[in-house]
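#onboarding

Welcome to the new folks! Below is a worked example of what a typical request in this channel looks like: someone posts a single protein sequence, and someone else replies with the predicted structure as tokens. Don't worry about understanding the tokens yet, we'll cover that in week two.

Example request:
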Amino acid sequence: DDSNNEPSVTLSCGGDGSTWPWHIRRTLTLGADVLRERLAIESLAEAGSAPVSFEVRDDFAGDAAASAAGGPRGTGEAVSLAPGGGWSASRVWLAPGLCADMGGEEACHGTTGGFTA
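Example response:
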């Protein structure tokens, strides 16, 4: 999608008629001084099915290694979706030169916070 003259790529899984009742899309968009990420999850379960709850985690490779060693893991958010329901979230990383205006590197690169719904 290049609707804003910003290159992007969308990775998609599910929604192809298989028995897996989810459609997950992750879109990364590169701007002149920003990287945006959007995650969207849609329940494809049949009407009348029970809602499904799961946790969306913000684990990086280093977090996974720390977790395997008994250390802390990344942040997570509990999500509950009814059949046909959806959830989405996004986050933004700014170019390093712009971070000083926002309180430093930790404040603007998504390392301290997770997704925002």
